[in-house]
Amino acid sequence: MGDAYLAHHAVEMGDLESLREEIANGADIEAVLGNISLLQHALDVEISGIHGGHGMHVDLTALVLAAGADPFRKTGWNEISAVEMAEEGGHWLAVALFRAWGHRDS
User: At what angle do helices 92-102 and 59-66 cross, to 10 degrees?
Assistant: First the structure.
């Protein structure tokens, strides 16, 4: 069974392959560790990269979202959603991804 701690570690390291493996092995993608969900953690890493001048990307976020994480679920930091976190952090690409995900056909 996948490990939520290892999934969070993979996010922190930007290790997509390890993250994919943990998700495939059943890591709880909605688990909150350190007062942050896996999706919020992915955003945090990406937003830090944006503010650090490393460009914008959405690969970590997209992988966690594709695994079923809910970007509208309020949790973690101040009970905000991942969408709100992305908006506040200036991660417009993640916001666009979340909005498109929210309008998908069921």
Answer: 20
Range of the structural domain that residue 90 is part of: 4-102
Angle between helices 4-13 and 16-24 (to 10 degrees): 160
Q: How many domains does the chain have?
A: 1
pLDDT digits (tens, 9 = 90+) for 1-43: 568 899 999 999 999 999 999 999 999 999 899 899 999 999 9
Q: What is the pTM of this model?
A: 0.90
CATH code, 49? 1.25.40.20
Q: How far apart are CA 34 and CA 56, in angstroms?
A: 25
H/E run at residue 41: helix 38-51
